[in-house]
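call fold(seq) -> tokens
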Amino acid sequence: MELDRVARAQGYRLLDLDEVDSTNDEARRLIDAGERGPLWIVAKRQTKGRGRLGRQWVSAQGNLHASLIVSDHIDMTLAPQLGFVVGVATIKALRLLAPCVRDVALKWPNDLVYLGAKLGGVLLENVAVPTGDARQPQLSVAIIGIGVNCAEAPKGLETPTKALAELLTPAPDAAQFFRALTQTLAQTLDLWRHGAGFALIRDEWLGAAAGLGETIRIVLGQETVTGKFETIDKDGRLVLATPHGPRIIEAGDVLLGPRPVSTEMRA
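ret:
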């Protein structure tokens, strides 16, 4: 694995591991030991990879398992915007490597999908580190975890999955994708300017959004809400048009496509 020259020129560093429990967990340990980034952590294999809401992330060898530590003026209240920043950068990296790729999109809030099947995901975590300075008692350090199915898609999951190797010939391997991503994420973070440029990120994200303008379902704990996906607002929240009026969704699982027919209705 290696960084792109754009990332190297901006001071990004790399820790390349053969195996780790989780790149996000390793990032947390390094932060506790004083690391503030920007530092990429990459592993060929994870033994305890994690996704959103504590879900297991199946980490097949040949796929990309990476985390980035960043703390340069990251405002904790703006940290959720990083998911959209990474989504835009991931699409840009794929287009750099495969300009003719089609039907790859971003699913709110933080998945990379191909025709609804999951290609990759982002796990954002934020660590508040005491500074000892009364004027700024805490520093916000972000961990951006990124997993992409480059070589192999995990099987037996509730949601469909795909790997880049199934879509492209030849397909970029994990090292090629990582190098491109280190370039596009460095550039997209600059565009974002730590919050000031989210309007630009929002426009680019919406240009690649899965299900935009369509009827979608969102699982909110024990409730499932159905409506038309209208947009995301200035804070990145999903705006859903329902029969009872607009509804603002801060967190949830988006289900695309028609509602499945229940087994009781089948002939």
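The helical segments are 5-9, 23-32, 82-97, 164-167, 174-192, 198-207.
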